[in-house]
Amino acid sequence: MKKSLALLAFTVLSIGSALAAPSPTEVCASQAAEKKLSGAAKNSFLTKCEKDMATMPSQCEGQAKEKKLAGAAKNSFIKKCENDAAASSVSNQCEAKAKEKKLAGAAKNSFVSKCQKDGMATK
How many domains is the chain built from? Predict the structure, then answer.
């Protein structure tokens, strides 16, 4: 019984670490690469992006506190909140790119869908 519990705990921890959210540095670097930034513009973008990402978890933690969550429920909520915020960022960027390209209708939907899938894959 103890062996199976230990195996279950190990499996859960292994899966959890594999699904861990990317670091703010990784997210910001991929966004800078998507925008094809270099030099001072890239450094400025990375600094601002990482600063913005640092405030994001506190917003999620604040929401968890408002809901009076604790322990595993709090951790799960915060992780989902942070992932949703990152996905929202990708979605907004894709919508903006579609607007720049003046896409509409099915072409826009197809472009945004592919862009979001590509954006999520890089994170």
Answer: 1
